[in-house]
Amino acid sequence: MFKGFKNFLMRDDVITVAIGLVVALAFSNLVKAFTDSVINPLVAAAQPDTAGLGLGYQLGAEGNEATFVDLGAFISAIIYFIVFMATIYFFIVLPYKHIQKRRGKAVFGDAPPTKTCPECASEIAAEATKCKFCASPQPAAAA
To answer: Contact 114/123 with Cβ under 8 angstroms?
Structure first.
């Protein structure tokens, strides 16, 4: 039982994913600090009349954080997501694709082209004439 678990852990793709996850989590903290320290103050400055609460709308008493719709936090979260995903793509996915290509493996490639089965309208491979269900012999109807 433990030998199978060891073999699973020692596979190349599991180790690669684990390293990528650690790098992504570490970078996540850096991006979060950037959005909290740089982006949030810039977004909050866009609407200065909110008693220091940032960009948004006050629904209740003036200065009450509980009734403040904070659009600035949402905009910052979107910026955080875009920066984080772009970094993951450019610093983890692209190098990984390059390394795997040099090893002769294709990863994160385009999906193979498909077409529609003329019989049942399901998706099939581009070189196929019918799907596997329409191509198999149909059972005879009971009389």
So the answer is: yes
For 33, phi and psi rounded to 5 degrees?
A: -65, -40
* Rounded-to-10 torsion of CA 134, 139, 140, 143: -120
Give the domain ranges of the chain.
Answer: 1-109, 111-142
- Which range, 8-22, 84-98, 107-121, has the best average confidence (pLDDT)? 84-98
Closest by Cα among 143, 142, 117 to 131: 117
CA–CA separation, 63 vs 43, rounded Å? Answer: 18
Least confident of 31-35, 62-66, 83-87, 112-116: 62-66
Comparing C-alpha atoms, which of 13, 12, 31, 33 is closest to residue 23? 31
CB 55 within 8 A of CB 75: yes
Closest by CA to 56, choosing from 78, 36, 47, is 47
Local confidence band at 103 (pLDDT 50, 70, 90 cut-offs): confident
- CATH code of 1-109, in short, is 1.10.1200.120
